[in-house]
Amino acid sequence: MSRYATTDLHGCLHTFRYLVEEELRLTLQDELYLLGDYVNKGPDSRGVLDYLMQLQAMGYQVQCLRGNHDHALLEAARHRWCWDWLGPRGRLPTLRSFGVQRLADIPAPYLDWLAALPYEIELPDFVLVHAGYDFALPPLEMRRDYATMLNTKKFVFDPSRLEGKRLLHGHVPTPTAQVRTRAATHPGVLGLDTGCVYRQNPELGHLAALNLDTWELKLVANREPLYSISKR
To answer: Which of 38, 77, 165, 191 is the most exposed place for a label (fewest CB within 10 A)?
Structure first.
């Protein structure tokens, strides 16, 4: 059995499938953790969600937590928030992938799946979150500060607030070489977002997966057909 974590798929279905089936060769005994942002920016948000649901239905141990893009899509589709921050170039590929013209018309099973996503996953040795925590808050309050957990781009890590567990997160695209170098040191906190969706940025454009037991880092270059948002 192996345990893996990856993050920030952003509609990159072909790249994610290649990671799962060719690089990880995922088995029913393995565990795969995803740190959020399955939708928006890339070409096939619906395809990514379909594949994740398919893996879970087939009995694969795939656990997914919520990212800020997943949360924003859900809130906008259920009329709780005005989704303007991506602009048309960010919004239209997502709508096209679902075959709808309005977010409210995204089929309910996808919205229900997104609504059930947790904000964090705790393992015996790791805590997984999409963006990070405000470590200045008391521990219980820190882990209920969902806005920070989804959106923060900078924090000062305090392992004592996580009972000594390591922290894995996504959210902030980081050069692939930098993530590889940091992973080799087995750090207390590691960001795994290597900007897969930004295929035209030479320092990004990869999907990273970390083996939580061996610290081996798998990197898959973006394998998607051409699409509009491919440079940061």
So the answer is: 165
What is the DSSP annotation of 9-75?
-TT-HHHHHHIIIIIS---TTSEEEE-S--SSSSS-HHHHHHHHHHHHHTT-EEEE---HHHHHHHH
Domains in the chain with CATH codes: 3-121+173-221 (3.60.21.10)
142: its two tokens: 């820190």
Give the separation between CA 126 and CA 112, rounded to whole angstroms: 27
Q: Tell me if 223 sits within 8 A of 195, measured CB to CB.
A: no
In order of 43, 72, 98, 188, the CA distances from 104 in angstroms are 19, 13, 11, 41
Do 65 and 122 meet the contact criterion of CB atoms below 8 Å apart?
no
Q: How far is CA 161 from CA 18, 133, 136, 142, 167, in A?
A: 36, 10, 9, 9, 11
Instruction: For residue range 116-155, list pLDDT tens digits in order.
Output: 999 999 999 999 999 999 999 999 999 999 999 999 999 9
Taking a C-beta distance cutoff of 8 angstroms, is the pair 6, 35 a contact? yes
Q: pLDDT digit string (tens) for 40-62?
A: 999 999 999 999 999 999 999 99
Q: How far is CA 139 from the centre of its chain?
A: 24
